[in-house]
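Friendly challenge for the regulars: who can give me the structure tokens for this chain first? No prize, just bragging rights.
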Amino acid sequence: MSAPGQDRAAPGARRRAVRTVTVVASCLAVLAAAVVTGVRALGQEPTVTLLANWTGRDARYFREAVIEPFEREHHIKVEYQGSSAESQVLGADVETGTPPDVVVLTGPGELAAYAGRQQLKPLDELIRREDFSESWVTPLNGHVYWFPLKADLKSIVWYPARTPPGTLNEIAGRPGQWCLGMGSGATSGWPGTDWIEDILLQQYGSGAYERWARGRLSWQSKEVKRAWTTWGRLAGAGGHKALVERALLTEYQQASELVTADPPRCSLEHQASFIRDLGPWKKADGRYTPSSRLIPGATAHDAWEVSGDLVALLHATPQARALIRHLASAGAQRAWVAKESGFSVHAGAQPSADDVGAGWHRSLARTLLDKDAVHCFDASDAMPPQVRDAFAQATIDFLADPGERHLDDLLRNLDSLSSPESLTWLNSVCDHGS
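First reply, four minutes later:
Bragging rights claimed.
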């Protein structure tokens, strides 16, 4: 994990580090598959295996709020495995024939690929469709294969409470004021994909966004290319070498620390709602504004990018089916988001008018559930895995070299990766309000 103070390393070193981390993650994934095999060999039944991305404190909270109540009620043991490289872990598990019974992933595109290979089990009889809007339980070949356990709102920019709101546009025009960290282990680059996705959504609306996220709008189109160049100018790519190196060498969760440095080294962060619970934004009493107010050329009205932790079933054992019903219940979802200060989009898990909480949290929840707003799922998460991963890597390469010829090469390559007919694309990624 790179720290912000290591700014003098070359961008090329960052790219090599990203690829090295990916190789290491793949090795760890093979080890994890062996662990799952060992657990099952013990014959401790009834047992259900669960893979998700929560580790450390988050894993402890998840166990306390969601898993332990299930174990007490159903007398079923949950063997939980948390990994920040869960995509690699799951891939290795599937390859060795030892996949978990239940998995929680952030990418519907990745889940769609597994469903296309008939490695997921339909959930039609285990969840109630009326509990979730169709944008969250997108049908595939007539069946539902996943549902959201937790959701986050994107398309927002955080700023310290001390900042006069009337100065935000002026501040946004200075690249040095944006807090940006591109590092995230095996998934490095995703903060850049979030930027480009949101810019496209705000500049051209949900129609263009959805065509692109479904593989029907070329990466080389004027709309998509404009989103990349807009982000490059905001991030200082091309003319601010120190800023680019800082972004490439900073882990995404460390970017916020620059807000509370003495003196502050940045004051705006384009990041999802979860970032408000990290220490720096708590200390800065973080406020938010819709990104549409700060993105140059934004024309969309009330359009929001969203993301979620999605639950899917690989083995339909009685224990796994019981866990799916539990995770899809209003009670479990309410308990989890209360522990994590997150959000649920389950119709029955919403807070009552008497519930108290931070004003920013209530406001974000209302936006996330607003039936008149347009919500679009994170485009890279909705894309086939190989396209998603190449997109993330391309954002790193673009920051290091934002030249037009290099950008054209990156976009041409992404078009070639998006073209095979064997890829599984989602039927939709946006709802369109009421």
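The CA atoms of residues 16 and 237 lie 19 Å apart. The chain has 15 helices and nine strands. Your move, everyone else.
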